[in-house]
Amino acid sequence: MQNFTAPERHPIITVSGVGVRREDRWLVRGVDLSIARGEIVTLIGPNGSGKSTTVKLALGIMAPDEGKVWREKKLRIGYVPQRVAMDRSLPMTVARLMALTGRHSANEIDRALEQVGIAHLKKAQVHQLSGGEFQRALIARAIIGKPDLLVLDEPVQGVDFSGEVALYDLIGQIRDATGCGVLLISHDLHVVMARTDTVICLNGHVCCSGSPETVAASGEYAALFGPRAAETLAIYRHEHNHSHLPDGTVKHADGDLNFDHHAHGPHCDHSHAHDHEHGHTRQNQEPSRHA
Amino acid sequence: MLESFFTRAIIAGLGVAAITGPLGCFIVWRRLAYFGDTMAHSAILGVALALFFSLSPMAGVFAIAVLVAIILVFLQKRGSLSSDSLLGLLSHSTLAIGLVLVSLMPHVRIDLMGLLFGDILAVSVADLALIYGGGAVVLGVLAWLWRPMLAGTVSEDIAQAEGFAPERNKLVFMVLLAALIAIAMKILGVLLITAMLIIPATAARRIANTPEQMALYAALGGMAAVLLGLWASLHFDTPSGPSIVVAALGVFALTSLVPLNGLSAKD
């Protein structure tokens, strides 16, 4: 088992063995993760793998049906949710949005907007922004309070590629400057992987986790994202030992469908007990999103 | 000055408009129009029960409105019926039960028209004290919880993650709304309270850039409607409550001429 936080760092959030059940379906189960100050942890996984659910559990937005979530007391959090649906009847300038959860000086607001590259939109109405501009505004809002933990759920949706790279660079810079922890959900594998300390590959449970190199080299990662994705960062390749079938069951390299033989490669870090019966089989839908 | 019933009516109306403006903004932002309507309609049931148990009508209205809000939230969470149908069910059944109960108490004389449409000209000095005392409390709580409530309106997830308690604040908001209904029932009547929540707020939307501006403009617009409505009611001898609502509609029509802020042609 691999301990992915450096030993001298204390975690600010620890999630251990959490699961969420809706009706009789487990959205996620047996998820472990921890984030330390200065660490960037990225959750990756296919649609419906429980990434947003895991983040909501870590933040206390959802309560787990099993397992434990621990957060440092008085942790300042900056959160960019996957979706923010503001009613159009609510007038809101970009500058006013910055003060949504706390008071900030005009200088702080200017600085945050400059950092994400939308200083010129300060007085614009939020409803007039394009998707990418709105995402930048949400990121500015999340970083303005100098959070201890920055949580970004697909933060660059709608942002063009060069903007994407710049925003991920910014997240790295903010981490370096303030020493905050970062929890990131992303689809942009190669952009993100290069800037991440720890990658957690999720598919209802933690498929594998560790440094980007380790995860990219693991069979589970290749199985989830295809061999091409693995090549982007793989230092070496090995044959993956199981694949996730469309119906959610796991097929092993030897063709064996028996769950008891769920063997893992040398770099696959399963730090928890698997529950294939529930955790693995019923993940066809994206977990409930906040509209 | 307070000896004139008309002066008392103006002072009462201005006070109520100052509360409905900001509170109405949240009703509009959170799409709670029908929800507010349902709570207001339940006020008739509140009055009937208060009469039956010889309590103050205002206490009865407040208690029943809070109860209806809690039942609604509970039923919505169970989620077998759409909110829409649930609201319709509760809105009209509480109104009907209230009317039936009132008619079953023959020894009680009750001004039904006053309950439904308000009787602002019958406002007493004690009513004024209640409007301004209660109104100060409602607006005070709203100001105190303004940032958390607004954050929860934009995104409950952000509010929750960043240390607010959006679920609790929603309940607080319902209590404030119940208090407003109890305070304003005599002035506007249960059928017209929602109008003074919605119309000034939507009128203010056209000219506001920020939520705070919208709340302020809604209050001012409502006050203008009160003055205009009461003047018209005196001048044309029309019922005061409906006249105020018609005047509010006039304010709305006026601001409609302004191009809608924040919603340009490209949307």
TrEMBL record, chain A:
One protein family per Pfam: ABC_tran
Record's compositionally biased regions (Basic and acidic residues): 244-280
Region: Disordered, residue numbers: 244-291
Domain of life: Bacteria
A molecular function (GO) term: ATP hydrolysis activity
Domain ABC transporter: start-end pairs: 13-228
SMART domains hit by this protein: AAA (SM00382)
Keywords: ATP-binding, Cell membrane, Ion transport, Membrane, Nucleotide-binding, Translocase, Transport, Zinc, Zinc transport
GO biological process annotation, one example: zinc ion transport
Compositionally biased region (Polar residues): 282-291
Family to which this protein belongs: Belongs to the ABC transporter superfamily.
Name the UniProt record assigns to this protein: Zinc import ATP-binding protein ZnuC
Organism from which the protein derives: Pelagibacterium lentulum
UniProtKB/TrEMBL annotation, chain B:
Membrane topology, record value: Multi-pass membrane protein
This protein's UniProt keywords: Cell membrane, Ion transport, Membrane, Transmembrane, Transmembrane helix, Transport, Zinc, Zinc transport
Nucleus listed as a keyword: no
GO BP annotations listed: response to zinc ion; transmembrane transport; zinc ion transport
Transmembrane portions of the chain: 6-29, 41-74, 86-108, 120-146, 171-202, 214-232, 244-263
Keyword Cell membrane part of the UniProt annotation: yes
GO annotation, cellular component aspect: ATP-binding cassette (ABC) transporter complex
Biological role: Involved in the high-affinity zinc uptake transport system.
Subcellular location, principal: membrane
Pfam families xref list: ABC-3
Family of this protein: Belongs to the ABC-3 integral membrane protein family.
Subcellular location: Cell membrane
Designated name of the protein: High-affinity zinc uptake system membrane protein ZnuB
